Protein backbone atom coordinates (compact mmCIF):
# COMPACT_ATOMS: atom_id res chain seq x y z
CA UNK A 1 0.00 0.00 0.00
CA UNK A 2 1.34 3.41 -0.95
CA UNK A 3 1.38 5.95 1.84
CA UNK A 4 2.07 8.97 -0.34
CA UNK A 5 -0.86 11.28 -1.07
CA UNK A 6 -2.37 10.98 -4.56
CA UNK A 7 -1.37 14.53 -5.47
CA UNK A 8 2.26 13.86 -4.52
CA UNK A 9 2.26 10.71 -6.67
CA UNK A 10 0.82 12.73 -9.56
CA UNK A 11 3.45 15.46 -9.21
CA UNK A 12 6.25 12.90 -9.03
CA UNK A 13 4.93 11.04 -12.09
CA UNK A 14 4.77 14.28 -14.06
CA UNK A 15 8.32 15.16 -13.01
CA UNK A 16 9.52 11.75 -14.19
CA UNK A 17 7.79 12.36 -17.52
CA UNK A 18 9.42 15.77 -17.89
CA UNK A 19 12.82 14.34 -16.96
CA UNK A 20 12.40 11.67 -19.62
CA UNK A 21 11.48 14.14 -22.35
CA UNK A 22 14.34 16.43 -21.31
CA UNK A 23 16.81 13.68 -22.19
CA UNK A 24 16.01 14.29 -25.87
CA UNK A 25 16.42 17.67 -27.51
CA UNK A 26 13.48 19.12 -29.41
CA UNK A 27 15.48 18.88 -32.64
CA UNK A 28 16.25 15.20 -32.10
CA UNK A 29 12.67 14.47 -31.10
CA UNK A 30 11.40 16.10 -34.30
CA UNK A 31 13.57 13.72 -36.32
CA UNK A 32 12.00 10.62 -34.79
CA UNK A 33 9.39 8.63 -36.67
CA UNK A 34 5.82 8.71 -35.39
CA UNK A 35 6.20 5.25 -33.89
CA UNK A 36 9.44 6.26 -32.15
CA UNK A 37 7.75 9.36 -30.77
CA UNK A 38 4.90 7.22 -29.52
CA UNK A 39 7.22 4.89 -27.62
CA UNK A 40 9.44 7.66 -26.22
CA UNK A 41 8.69 7.99 -22.50
CA UNK A 42 5.66 5.73 -22.91
CA UNK A 43 5.96 4.15 -19.46
CA UNK A 44 6.09 7.58 -17.81
CA UNK A 45 3.09 8.78 -19.86
CA UNK A 46 1.15 5.66 -18.91
CA UNK A 47 1.88 6.23 -15.23
CA UNK A 48 0.43 9.75 -15.43
CA UNK A 49 -2.60 8.42 -17.34
CA UNK A 50 -3.11 5.64 -14.78
CA UNK A 51 -3.08 8.13 -11.92
CA UNK A 52 -5.68 10.21 -13.73
CA UNK A 53 -7.80 7.15 -14.52
CA UNK A 54 -8.02 6.14 -10.86
CA UNK A 55 -9.86 9.39 -10.18
CA UNK A 56 -8.03 9.81 -6.85
CA UNK A 57 -7.27 13.44 -7.61
CA UNK A 58 -10.81 14.60 -6.90
CA UNK A 59 -11.06 17.38 -4.35
CA UNK A 60 -12.74 15.24 -1.68
CA UNK A 61 -9.81 12.79 -1.72
CA UNK A 62 -7.23 15.59 -1.68
CA UNK A 63 -8.94 17.24 1.30
CA UNK A 64 -9.22 13.89 3.13
CA UNK A 65 -5.49 13.22 2.57
CA UNK A 66 -4.58 16.69 3.86
CA UNK A 67 -6.69 16.17 6.98
CA UNK A 68 -5.00 12.83 7.63
CA UNK A 69 -1.59 14.46 7.29
CA UNK A 70 -2.55 17.25 9.69
CA UNK A 71 -3.84 14.71 12.21
CA UNK A 72 -0.56 12.76 12.01
CA UNK A 73 1.46 15.94 12.44
CA UNK A 74 -0.71 16.96 15.40
CA UNK A 75 -0.23 13.55 17.03
CA UNK A 76 3.54 13.77 16.51
CA UNK A 77 3.62 17.23 18.08
CA UNK A 78 1.57 16.01 21.03
CA UNK A 79 4.04 13.18 21.64
CA UNK A 80 6.98 15.60 21.54
CA UNK A 81 5.30 17.91 24.03
CA UNK A 82 4.72 15.05 26.48
CA UNK A 83 8.33 13.93 26.29
Net shape:
elongated
Distance between the termini: 31 Å
Query: Which structural class should the secondary elements be placed in?
Result: mainly alpha
Biggest beta sheet attributes: none
Domain unit count: 1
Number of strands: 0
Oligomer: single chain
**Unreliable residue runs:** none
Structure in words:
With about 80 residues, the protein is an all-alpha fold. The protein has one domain (about 5-80). About 80% of the residues lie in helices and about 0% in strands. The protein has helices spanning about 5-20, 25-30, 35-40, 40-55, 60-80. The longest helix is centred in the last third of the chain and has 24 residues, at about 60-80. The relative contact order is 0.14.
Index terms:
83 residues; mainly alpha; elongated
Q: Topology, pairings included?
A:
Elements: H1 6-22, H2 26-31, H3 34-39, H4 42-53, H5 59-82
Helix pairs in contact: 1-4
Provide a quick synopsis of the model:
78% of the residues lie in helices and 0% in strands.
